[in-house]
């Protein structure tokens, strides 16, 4: 059997002049040294790394479960604002079916340029407080899931990763006027119990995220996943609020300070646009009202928060951002917090429906809300 790590091309530490791989090169003179280094074509931990400095891994890729363009927004936010260094790239020619998902290329006058190849990259990133973590992002592969998962598992073991967090999103019949729901899963009860707003029992179509989580669990590695619920009529476009929620869950679980300011502002802007379009169409108003009734009927009355303790009140939408920062700065790992889904109602979306019902100019959502006795579609968990 081929070595799964043969799928990886390891990148040596940049010398500070290559800005294509890093926003701020971790190996440059003015920033902390990289925790992971390349030796003989393999990724290894620096020898001076102690148990307290163990890395965590955040995974998000576009594809099967990427409603609201979650993966793209996470990559833009994390790699656009935080110091990072590209550690390795997967061999895309081995993993992707170009004819089923044809890449984009630019044609100008009489020439082609800017071929947008699929990618799957591993980065080392430092959060706002300088804490390093690993980030695996890109496109969900079409082929060799077992081999890709084995490669990730070998990296987890070789780099002594303490926790893997996977975040993804599904388009479900939920209203944009309610907080984003979540289905939490994995083998860390302290990070998942009491958090899910909906957790059905069902047979579902698997994506690579689900398969990787299964493999990590079988290997007895600590792993949790957060599947966010995006209103189905806004799932095809960019939905900044789902990215905010994902960063809040991931940041709290990994004890990292991750950037959400720009995404929150985008959420406010798009939420205003969505509200305006809904108010202009009585049929859409009726659909949203039915979704609200359905949501309220099935909503979980009590929900833990990763950011507060048992005897504390759950933070409201305006307090949540400040709570994340305070928690990550002062949290005692011996005292686990009690989780709640993000309560921020400032939802943003590029109102393009997953089913083609909406656009920025016209929501065009069909009046097809679930009836009162219907429950939101299974979050593929």
Automatic annotation (TrEMBL):
InterPro entries: Proteasome_assmbl_chaperone_2, PSMG2_sf
Feature: compositional bias, Basic and acidic residues: 369-381
SUPFAM superfamilies: Cgl1923-like
Biased composition (Polar residues): 22-35
Pfam families: PAC2
Region of interest (Disordered), ranges: 11-35, 328-381
Name of the protein: PAC2 family protein
Organism listed in the record: Nesterenkonia lutea
């Amino acid at each position: 059997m081929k070595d799964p790590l043969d799928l990886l091309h390891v990148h040596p530490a940049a010398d500070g002049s290559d800005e294509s791989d890093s926003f701020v090169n971790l190996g440059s003179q003015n920033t902390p040294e990289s925790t992971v280094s390349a030796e003989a074509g393999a990724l290894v931990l620096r020898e001076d790394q102690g148990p307290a400095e163990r890395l965590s891994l955040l995974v998000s890729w576009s594809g099967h479960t990427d409603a609201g363009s979650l993966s793209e927004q996470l990559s833009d936010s994390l790699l656009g604002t935080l110091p990072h260094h590209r550690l390795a790239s997967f061999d895309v020619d081995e993993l992707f079916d170009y004819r089923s998902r044809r890449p984009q290329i630019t044609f100008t006058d009489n020439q082609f340029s800017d071929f947008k190849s699929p990618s799957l990259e591993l980065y080392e990133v430092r959060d706002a407080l300088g804490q390093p973590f690993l980030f695996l992002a890109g496109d969900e592969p079409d082929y060799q899931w077992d081999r890709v998962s084995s490669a990730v598992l070998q990296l987890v073991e070789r780099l002594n990763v303490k926790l893997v967090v996977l975040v993804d999103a599904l388009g479900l019949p939920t209203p944009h006027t309610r907080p984003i729901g979540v289905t939490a899963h994995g083998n860390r009860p302290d990070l998942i119990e009491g958090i899910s707003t909906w957790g059905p029992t069902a047979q579902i179509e698997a994506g690579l995220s689900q398969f990787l989580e299964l493999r990590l669990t079988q290997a007895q590695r600590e792993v949790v996943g957060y599947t966010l619920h995006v209103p189905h009529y806004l799932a095809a476009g960019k939905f900044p609020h789902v990215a905010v929620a994902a960063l809040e869950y991931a940041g709290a679980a990994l004890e990292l300070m991750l950037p959400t300011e720009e995404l929150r502002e985008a959420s406010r802007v798009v939420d205003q646009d969505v509200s305006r379009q809904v108010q202009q169409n009585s049929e859409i108003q009726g659909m949203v009202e039915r979704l609200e009734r359905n949501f309220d009927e099935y909503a979980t009355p009590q929900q833990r928060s990763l950011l507060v303790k048992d005897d504390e009140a759950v933070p409201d939408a305006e307090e949540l951002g400040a709570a994340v920062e305070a928690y990550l700065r002062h949290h005692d790992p011996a005292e686990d917090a009690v989780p709640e889904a993000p309560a921020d109602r400032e939802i943003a979306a590029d109102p393009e429906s997953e089913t083609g019902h909406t656009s920025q100019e016209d929501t065009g959502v069909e009046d097809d809300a679930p009836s009162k006795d219907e429950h939101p579609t299974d979050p593929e968990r």
